[in-house]
Amino acid sequence: xxxxxxxxxxxxxxxxxxxxxxxxxxxxxxxxxxxxxxxxxxxxxxxxxxxxxxxxxxxxxxxxxxxxxxxxxxxxxxxxxxxxxxxxxxxxxxxxxxxxxxxxxxxxxxxxxxxxxxxxxxxxxxxxxxxxxxxxxxxxxxxxxxxxxxxxxxxxxxxxxxxxxxxxxxxxxxxxxxxxxxxxxxxxxxxxxxxxxxxxxxxxxxxxxxxxxxxxxxxxxxxxxxxxxxxxxxxxxxxxxxxxxxxxxxxxxxxxxxxxxxxxxxxxxxxxxxxxxxxxxxxxxxxxxxxxxxxxxxxxxxxxxxxxxxxxxxxxxxxxxxxxxxxxxxxxxxxxxxxxxxxxxxxxxxxxxxxxxxxxxxxxxxxxxxxxxxxxxxxxxxxxxxxxxxxxxxxxxxxxxxxxxxxxxxxxxxxxxxxxxxxxxxxxxxxxxxxxxxxxxxxxxxxxxx
Amino acid sequence: xxxxxxxxxxxxxxxxxxxxxxxxxxxxxxxxxxxxxxxxxxxxxxxxxxxxxxxxxxxxxxxxxx
Lengths: 450, 66
Known about the structure:
The complex is a heterodimer of chains A (450) and B (66). Chain A is mostly helical and 450 residues long. Helices cover 72% and strands 1% of the residues of chain A. Chain A has a two-stranded antiparallel ribbon. Chain B is mainly α and 66 residues long. Chain B has a domain at 34-66. Classes of the chains: A mainly alpha (450), B mainly alpha (66). At the A-B interface, helix 2, helix 3, helix 4, helix 8 and helix 9 of A face helix 1, helix 2 and helix 3 of B.
């Protein structure tokens, strides 16, 4: 078998030149908007905490039970919606998820107490938004793109990141001008009036639904004589459970668990750490903004590189770079550390998402990708929830984040090593292709032990 | 003993209310726009984006004859 990806990509039906912009990019634009409003509905939560405290006469901790519930529900929903995506197609799941999320989001405007908030936000919205996560949108993209899978995933992820940065300020201004009920009505209304029709009209679960080929390739063969040969990787599994018996899914999940630990802990504890180092909230905010800006560029750059180089090496490097950023937090003096972290950490922040999603698709194929990437996403969310609590406990006990950050750095370096150890050239369809039907049962694979 | 889930319950996503308060002040200072204008600009973008994508996607499909 050849290990030259460029040669392997030339196998299969003879291709004619592409015409115009590939329709897959329109699909990305529509999913970008769906992600955009879903992120807005979830990330905007923090903006309303103070208002709810005043309106309902409750504490931050009481209100935030809904947020904590939502975090966990969203994590556990991922394999479930991923499985539904594999069975019913991504388009149907995204449309239904967006519809439920939109109605529930508008429903929050009618809530008058914490119980309603827990029910609607903690359960309904958080579960439904799991259906507009990479476990579903990533699957659709993986089915539309193969050669440019990395950059396509990166565009979707970075778009969602930028979208969150725009939607949240929008909600805040609506809150100031018209009140929190109007803010929730508006974001839910946007999703219902524009998001649902957009996905219905534009998105198709796979290029085959429109009679197209993956990557927009056009076969020169006539329909009568054409034998469509899609590349099949050695670990492409008929059943998702088979994949759980192989090593790559666990290597990716363990590393992604660490990703969850380190991103969630920083998201919640960054300002508190800055304050403990006598750095103002404003400087911390600015540093986090710099991190987000560098991140958007970093994700796109990593996406471009990942379509040329081995993805596992980039993934390992991303974890290592983030590990160095964490080391800077407890080695350097606070005022220098905050900027070192913003710049170094920003280069790696969300870059793990397109790499992990693409690598999962390359190794296991797209048939069960929703379930498998949902499983990996669940690991990410649970790691994040656990880390946020443990970092908080540690700070309460020791009055410093040095030990938690050191643990974060060690886990990141470990995640980097685990990622480097993935045998991409043995498992990925980019490097190894077998005849259709000859994929190795992952449970019986001997290459893992090689 | 402190509430063990206190840190988790503080806020689950990156947008901290205190942080946003500072950011909004800075945005106002830099751009000098009132909240109403910002809502109008961003709202227009949110409405136009999906409409434009729908139009160009439908035109593309007509071009492809599908």
